[in-house]
Design brief:
The chain is an all-alpha fold. Helices cover 72% and strands 0% of the residues.
Amino acid sequence: MKLVNSASLNATNVATSVLAQTPADYPGDTHVFTRANKKLLNADIALAHANYDASVIGLASGGYTGA
């Protein structure tokens, strides 16, 4: 659950901050996109780890479904 919460925290407000940008702000707002990309990448990594952990737990408990 910790990894899923971490993913959620990393992804929080990414869409809001990206959609708030306007063409007139370019190139001064490129840091917003860089930061958003990093947050989404960290969320993706956290979810991948959570998925791996779920698979290991499933294997260990005999409940692996192959998902």
